[in-house]
Design goal:
This protein has 4 helices and 8 strands. The chain is an alpha+beta fold. The chain has one domain: Protein Transport Mog1p, Chain A. The protein has an 8-stranded antiparallel β-sheet with strand order 1-2-3-4-8-7-6-5. The radius of gyration is 16 Å and the shape is globular.
Length: 162
């Protein structure tokens, strides 16, 4: 398997390396020996971690950030990868998942949102520089993020509609 096809395999199905939505923190700690704790909490009340880059580099992935819920189950996963992979990864994701929506990005290309059952998958090229993000989020994480965003952006003139 080439590094690019290995990268696409992992990016399109993180469960192959033990990073599936719903996996427990203890299971992920058994797979990845270098989880770095991040400051703060997930939108769903759990801890945040970063997988050390050296554990993912051979897979063609620059980094991964993990958000857990209050029960220590993986609720969201953010992969960082080289922007040059964006066009091929977009086509790969289109052939694998259902495209829900797309919108223009400030950095060129566009943001594409896919679904895989209840999991939302977002391909986001907005990061400045040479990298992009691919995220997987559970329905609970998505609702909590939208509620948080609505709460901080809400004004008396504009009611939230989520």
């Amino acid at each position: 398997m080439t590094p690019l096809s290995l990268s696409f395999s992992v990016l399109s199905n993180p469960a192959v390396i033990g990073l599936d939505i719903g996996a427990t923190l203890s299971d992920i700690r058994n797979t990845f020996k270098s989880l770095d704790s991040m400051i703060g909490h997930s939108y769903t009340g759990g801890p945040l971690f970063r997988v050390a880059a050296y554990e993912l580099r051979e897979l063609g992935i620059l980094g991964a950030e993990l958000a857990f819920n209050h029960n220590d189950c993986l609720d969201a996963l953010y992969f960082q990868f080289e922007k040059v992979q964006y066009p091929s990864l977009l086509e790969y994701l289109r052939s694998t998942f259902t495209l829900i929506s797309q919108r223009d990005s400030l950095q060129g290309n566009f943001i594409a949102i896919f679904s895989n059952g209840p999991i939302e998958i977002t391909l986001d090229p907005q990061r400045p520089g040479s990298s992009c993000f691919l995220s997987y989020t559970s329905p609970a994480f998505k609702r909590a993020r939208e509620a948080y965003t609505c709460a901080i952006n809400n004004s008396d003139l504009l009611p939230c509609t989520s």
